[in-house]
UniProtKB/TrEMBL annotation:
Function: Acts as a component of the translation initiation factor 2B (eIF2B) complex, which catalyzes the exchange of GDP for GTP on the eukaryotic initiation factor 2 (eIF2) complex gamma subunit. Its guanine nucleotide exchange factor activity is repressed when bound to eIF2 complex phosphorylated on the alpha subunit, thereby limiting the amount of methionyl-initiator methionine tRNA available to the ribosome and consequently global translation is repressed.
Protein name per its UniProtKB record: Translation initiation factor eIF2B subunit gamma
A single cellular component GO annotation: cytosol
Provenance organism: Aegilops tauschii subsp. strangulata
Keyword Protein transport: no
Amino acid sequence: MDFQVVVLAGGTSEKLSPLVSKDVPKALLPVANRPAISYVLDLLESSDLKDIIVVVEGQEAARLVGAWISSAYLDRLVVEVVAVTEDIGTAGALRAISKRLVANDVLVISGDLVTDVLPGAVAATHRRNGAAVTALLCSVPVSGPSDAASSGGKDKAKKPCRLNIVGLDITRQFLLHVVSGTDVEKDVRVYKRKIRAVGQMEIRSDLMDAHLYAFNRTTLQDVLEQKEAYRSIRLEVLPYLVKSQLRSAPSGGEGTIVDETGNVVVPPSSNLQCLSQHRAIAPSAFKQDLLASSGGGTHRCCVYIASKNKYCHRLNSIQAYCDINRDVIGEASHLSGYSFSSHNNIIHPSCVLGSKSTVSLISYLFHN
């Protein structure tokens, strides 16, 4: 499969302080006695995606991560670890390695993702639909979406959980609208042109962006080059592609270009206006009609929605760290590779219980 894989491993995230440090970067934070990034690397290996670029923020963090990967995945994966400047964001990290991307499609995955959804399934969906981008969406964890998690109990009590809003077509394959939870207030605005174009849109607030994306390389590089101020894939790159996919380019003197804000109304004579009729007349052809090129300016934004029985969580807060450690020794124990019982737990053999030690410290880490 002609995919290049990029793992965004981060560096020393403030959200996880004091768990992370210069000696233990985020990627090497232990989850059930395994470095967090090992869950992503094992997942990629199981999908036969073995040519990987791991992007780490900071030279020292990159050195530590590279040393561990070299010893743990020797003769298993071909991994290039690249150090980038700290605090440049996910889009900034991709921009920094853009020249290294040469395959037709690029699979981008966050190094803090713990899931059993195979990246190969997302890649296959992306190729099948000929998409510009395909995003993995998962059910929101019981504790709330990872991106909305707060780092302190008081903040969590004061700030209500804001869910991401996504709009899908009737087949639930195409992403037509996306609003980050941080941008959602009381109302969500959906432009009439989108409704007219697709005839029907399903609005969902129970799905989480898992930070696993398949991109067409050329499209991705163009956006990163043209939008130099973009720092986030989730908050900027993905919304931009979704907003611009329903543009109508001039063709034979008809049609109007719609800007990325969606403020220009599409004339009734445009191709987009006819899509709802095509859907009613030929439902099987709706997928192609919806995102067929209108003068060459249209692309497709797709989704892969994981089934509800799949595990999907991101390790991007202390609360999420506790939740994931609890889950991988419980309902998601298949991810850790351990078999647990009352006589076989995750306390490492090297651990020694001192005369003045208490169990409550360990209990807090894994159960609080």
